[in-house]
Amino acid sequence: MKKRIFLLSALFLITIMANAQLIKDRTNGKITMGFDLYTDINTGSKYENFDLRAINQGFGAYITYNLPMLESKHTVSIGLGVSSHNYYMKSAWLSEPYAHTITFTQLSSCDKSKLNFNYMDIPFELNFRIADKFKISFGGKVGFLMSSRAKVIGKINEANEVNPDTHNWEVRYNSLNAVESIVYSAFARVGYRCVNLFVGYQITGSFKSDRGPEILPFSIGIGIRAY
Questions:
Q1: In total, how many domains does the chain have?
Q2: Helix, strand or coil, per DSSP, at residue 29
Q3: What is residue 164's predicted lDDT score, i.e. its pLDDT?
Q4: How far apart are CA 8 and CA 13, in angstroms?
Q5: What are the φ and ψ backbone dihedral angles of 94, each rounded to 5 degrees?
Q6: Do the Cβ atoms of 63 and 81 come closer than 8 Å?
Q7: Residue 162 in 3-state DSSP?
Q8: Is the pTM of this model over 0.85?
Q9: Which tens digits make up the pLDDT trace of 212-224?
Q10: Is the Cβ–Cβ distance between 225 and 194 less than 8 Å?
Q11: How far is Cα 208 from Cα 205, in angstroms, rounded to an integer?
Q12: Could you give the CA distance from residue 126 to residue 101 in angstroms, rounded to a whole number?
């Protein structure tokens, strides 16, 4: 299953890269498509009852319209995109997702527990081209919440000599309470040709103040887009 997901992701990246370059050529560089893969590191306060996993993978995709700065090769860009953030918890789960204040419960039999937030983004970006093949970009974006989810998978009982069977259980929530509907982020990219290093910081917490854990993700990863 993991191998299949990896192959599909690789094929998707190659397709985006090819289409992005085609669009760039046909629009004289005014339209750019891109895709980011990253991991989130939380910079918020220490949580009660749980810790996050070291790797919390996410992704983003976007399309921008580029305006030249005077007669230079540098551009100002504005666009539209989507982003997804996943937070994997250790030995804890969200047992009451619809409560006024979101809290987490410890769970020793937890195999997998995560939160998922998906946003529609409006990015604004300044792009500076160096020696034609290098590009440095700085910008910010506004994210509008599209969905918030929680999922946990655990075992009802562990196998032993008396009872060799074990049963898995799974709980999903498709909407969470106390989640911020609008978040603000800053980001930067350093790229060579179509590959770039991406870093981002979400200035607004994922949950409303004093109604959930303080999740302020710092994202780092790689991106692909037409240069």
A1: 1
A2: coil
A3: 57
A4: 9
A5: -90, 95
A6: yes
A7: coil
A8: no
A9: 888 899 999 999 8
A10: yes
A11: 7
A12: 39
